[in-house]
Amino acid sequence: MLDKTAKIKEGKIMSCFICERIEMIKDGTNPYFVTELETGYVVLGDYQRYKGYTCFLSKLHVTELHFMTKEYRINTWKK
Ligand SMILES: [Zn+2]
Question: Is the residue at 1 inside a domain?
């Protein structure tokens, strides 16, 4: 189900900024992509206030960490 912020870009449904960035990784167009992990992607931050600043983008779209299952959280953070 789409939320109110969903939009369609080039025929693909984009529901949020993070999902859009993940789609860019899958399309090979995200210049900040570093590596893929089992549960998400590591990317360089858009703004490098601190050199090498990176972010983790979860493959599971949730608005709060507690919406992830316990197993998924453990699997994500043990890596
Ligand atoms: Zn999302």
Answer: no
Amino acid identity, residue 48? Answer: Q
Question: Is 22 within the bounds of a domain?
Answer: yes
pTM of this structure:
0.74
Count of structural domains within the chain: 1
pLDDT in single tens digits along all 79 residues of the chain: 455 556 666 666 667 899 999 999 999 999 999 999 999 999 999 999 999 999 999 999 888 889 999 998 888 877 6
Burial class of residue 25 (count of CB atoms within 10 Å of its CB; 0-12, 13-18, 19+): middle
The CA 62 to ligand 1 mean position distance, Å, reads 7
Q: Which residues surround ligand 1, an ion (CB under 5 A)?
A: 16, 18-19, 61
